[in-house]
Every structure is written in structure tokens, then in C-alpha cells.
Amino acid sequence: RNKLTYTHKKLTNGVAYYYKIQAYKNYKGKKLLGEMSPFEKYCDYFTYKNESYESRCKRIFGKKYYKKYKNAKQASKHVTTVAVKVWDKQGGRKFTRKFYLTVNKGIAPSVKEMFKEIYKSKERFSIHEMGCYNWRGNSSTSEHCLGLAFDINSNENYMIDGKKVLAGSFWKPKKNKYSIPLNCKLVKILEKYGFERGLWGSRRDYMHFSYFGT
Q1: Is the dihedral of CA 131, 100, 209, 53 positive or negative?
Q2: Using CA atoms, how far apart are residues 55 and 58, in angstroms rounded to an integer?
Q3: Neighbours of 196 (CB within 10 A)
Q4: Using an 8 Å Cβ cutoff, are 146 and 60 in contact?
Q5: What is the pLDDT of residue 40?
Q6: How far apart are CA 74 and CA 68, in angstroms?
Q7: What is the distance between the alpha carbons of residues 132 and 148, in angstroms, rounded to a whole number?
Q8: From CA 95, how far away is CA 87, in angstroms rounded?
Q9: CB 209 within 8 A of CB 150
Q10: Containing H/E element for 187?
Q11: What are the CA-CA distances from residue 175 to residues 158, 171, 172, 181 (Å)?
Q12: Cβ neighbours of residue 93 under 8 Å, at least 6 residues apart?
């Protein structure tokens, strides 16, 4: 049997590519064609917007369903630390900060790529505080327990339920450099990599961006 290979280069992450494969055989001067076999393949090395729930579960858990880690010891086996650069501002001058984020191993490559894009963007949004993995107990359903959620500038991007402040102090995107607007480059890049902001009806967590949207 002869084997043919094809390498498709310069792919775009999060885009589906369609291919058709057809076997053939030269027989008595004629080409005999087999059945056409079309198939779809996503470029999914990195996380991406509109990634299916099943794909997200498979990336994180290796299975088609979502599960919690039983305890901190188990969770610690599924996280790793990545270094990312961000911009901050002091006295009118922009400077580089470096964070060492503990994140789920399944999203580690995506996190590095995502923050590389955020750092290179012309916006240079100011970030002075950020966290991801945080074990919050066996009963918690928070994605922070899995290393799948980010809190960015938590004090300046508060969490509220109606008029009740649950965490942080305020959210003033037009007045404070650390308050994250609803529609800015930082948010768009996070969304591009599949991280949704925590805006759930009357409960609005302006600091929070998570992979499963919880």
C-alpha cells in the first residue's frame, strides 16, 4: 500500500477546516475510485470562542463531561504555573509586570498565548493584580478550584448582586485605569480564547473571566 501525507500549514485557531479523502487504484489502465470520505477538523491547539462544551470537557478532563476535583491534593495534580507579562501604569508611565499564574494544565498553552496577545495589543490595559487557581473547599463549585477562572484587578472590578457588594470596592471604567470596560481589547481577547465575563443577570462579577462561564 502506498501512503500519502498532507500537511496543512498556517491554520487559524478555532476555525473548522473541511477535507475530502478518496482512495483510488490504477487497474488495467483505468483509475478506480473509492467512496469519498469528507470530514471536519477544528484547529484547536488553543482554547477558542464558541468551543463546544464537549470539547472543553475533553480538553480539561479527558472525557465528555464536567467534574469537580475531590480535594486540594487532587486539584494540585492538574495545575501548573505559567509566567505572563502585562502592562501597568504609574505616574503616567507604562511599565511591564510579570505574573506567575497557577492554571489548569489543559489551558496552560492557551493562557500563555492569550496574555502574549494582550501584552502586544496597542491598548496596553493596566493590570496590577490577578489570580487564577484558588482552592475554595470541597463544596465549592467555583472554577477557581479547577484553575479555569481569572480575577483581574479585583478591587476595582467589584462583584455585586443587585445593589449589594459581595467583593471588591467599585467598578468605574471611565474614571479608574484598573476598572475593565465592558467592551475593550482586553475583554475581546479573553473572549476570543473562550473566557466569558461573569455577568449573570443581577449578579455581576466584573473581575471574573472563566472557561466554562460559571
Answers
A1: negative
A2: 5
A3: 18
A4: yes
A5: 66
A6: 10
A7: 7
A8: 6
A9: yes
A10: helix 185-192
A11: 14, 9, 5, 10
A12: none
One DSSP character per residue, 149-185 reads EEEESGGGEEEEETTEEEEEEEE-TTT-TTSPPSSSH
- Give the pairing type, strands 157-161 and 79-90: unpaired
In the block, which residue shows the cell 477538523? 41
pLDDT, one tens digit for every residue, the chain (214 residues)? 567 777 877 667 766 666 677 777 787 788 877 777 776 666 567 999 999 999 999 999 999 899 999 999 999 999 999 999 999 999 889 999 999 999 999 999 999 999 999 999 999 999 999 999 999 999 999 999 999 999 999 999 999 999 999 999 999 998 999 999 999 999 999 999 999 999 999 999 999 999 999 9
Sequence-distant (6+) residues with CB within 8 A of 110 are: 46, 47, 193, 194
Q: What is the 3-state secondary structure (H, E, C) of 66-121?
A: CCCCCCHHHHHCCEEEEEEEEEEEECCEEEEEEEEEEEEHHHHHHHHHHHHHHHHC
Place of cell 475593550: 184
C-alpha cell at 137: 473547599
Q: What distance in Å separates the CA atoms of residue 185 and residue 191, rounded to the nearest whole number?
A: 10
Q: What does the angle CA 24 – CA 25 – CA 31 come to, to the nearest 5 degrees?
A: 85
